[in-house]
Amino acid sequence: MNASPAFSTKNLETAEQLEAVLRQIGAARYHSLHPFHRLLHGGELNKGQVQAWALNRYYYQCSIPIKDAVVISRFRDRDIRVEWRHRLEDHDGDVGQEGGIERWLKLTEGLGLDTAYVESTEGILPATRFAVDAYVHFVRDRTPLEAIASSLTELFAPTIHEERIAGMLAHYDFVNPSIMTYFKRRLDQAPRDAIFALGYVKQHAHTPAEREAVCNALIFKTNVLWAQLDALYHAYVDGHVPPGAFAPKAG
Amino acid sequence: MNASPAFSTKNLETAEQLEAVLRQIGAARYHSLHPFHRLLHGGELNKGQVQAWALNRYYYQCSIPIKDAVVISRFRDRDIRVEWRHRLEDHDGDVGQEGGIERWLKLTEGLGLDTAYVESTEGILPATRFAVDAYVHFVRDRTPLEAIASSLTELFAPTIHEERIAGMLAHYDFVNPSIMTYFKRRLDQAPRDAIFALGYVKQHAHTPAEREAVCNALIFKTNVLWAQLDALYHAYVDGHVPPGAFAPKAG
Known about the structure:
The structure is a homodimer. Chain A has helices spanning 15-29, 35-41, 47-73, 78-92, 100-110, 115-120, 126-141, 144-149, 157-171, 181-204, 208-237. By secondary structure, chain A is mainly alpha-helical. Chain A has one domain: Up-down Bundle (Heme Oxygenase, Chain A), CATH 1.20.910. The radius of gyration of chain A is 18 Å and the shape is globular. Chain A starts with 14 loop residues before the first helix and ends in a 14-residue tail after the last helix. Chain A binds chain B through residues 1-3, 5, 28-29, 35, 114, 117, 122-123, 125-127, 129-131, 133-134, 137, 219, 222-224, 226-227, 230-231, 233-235, 238, 240-247, and chain B through 1-3, 5, 28-29, 35, 114, 117, 122-123, 125-127, 129-131, 133-134, 137, 219, 222-224, 226-227, 230-231, 233-235, 238, 240-247.
């Protein structure tokens, strides 16, 4: 009764087979395939729809360091905690030094959204909050191995970021290079993070069952990203904005 | 920037004002107003779409006793635990005695869904899982007062159940009275539960801030219900079924 997946999580005897299946999962389910991104990157959205995307995505951005702090809290192994800690710095920055969240607020500000309103998160779609919070709960409630595995969508992020930077700059007169610095920065950060996480799961998933759990953690995370775009598409492309959510000015 | 709500959570000096605002929230945001329910109750869905609704809603049904067990676990007051315990019995039944979950499986079976597949929940929309799990996490993480307040959607349930029973029996040849027993039973159960929960929050919310928290817990819960229907509408009415989710047979 299910759409048949483009991969099987049943043949996972080796770390190399695990990596191959993880890459198949990304090729089949990463949100670069979502219709909303085709519209966003192809210049087919109006400013209000791009605002809705950036406003909702802010909740994901500002939840990532909370998620990463939970991941750190799962490890008694100091080396992992030290390695993972730089993710907090990447997103939160430091005293007098901007991080990813501030860079995202440059994007929302550049799109004409009030920063206090964005930071309040009061206008986001409930479905955005449910999906993002599910990610934080996942890394708290599942095994440390699954917590790290759920970050593996970063393996597939650079391509979509390059596509997004080029597409948004080419198509939207309300987008300029200075507000796209978040994505430019992630082009360096995401691969480093992904390489560590991939190496970790290949080394620490010892059995086919553990490798399947790693694959399912990545599938879970692709669902977290996909569900956010489904909700944006339903509300702001098909026009079913739920009660209390951000309502763009006509345009 | 927000759609202006049909109520204010700012004028909450008394228990009576609290009840009035709670009823305004229900009138403005309960999912009886959702377009998907108009289609469902009006006979405008095909069998596959009704199957998708029942399959996804099963995940909500089978999570309710887990949610209620968490609520019970929040109270050191034996009387509340005893009062709330009958909700577990209503949904789980007893040895040799069916409960709400079994009645829901009669509905899905009557709609032609394989019970093992329904119970596996593998075909549900990720957005359904995120929304329902958010409800379980809410009653665990918020105050006991908010945990009870989030059940207050039951104040508004009898009307939608009557509408659903009449509408589905009138419009769908694949629906018969025996598979609608879940809703008939809830017509008695929900009011009893709602009256207790309403009395509890009116008695135990002592300050305007606590009454506002009660209102926000009800708004949260209306969002949990609304988001599930948004996801069903997007996937099965507009036809954007996400990867891995239930795909109805043509019909």
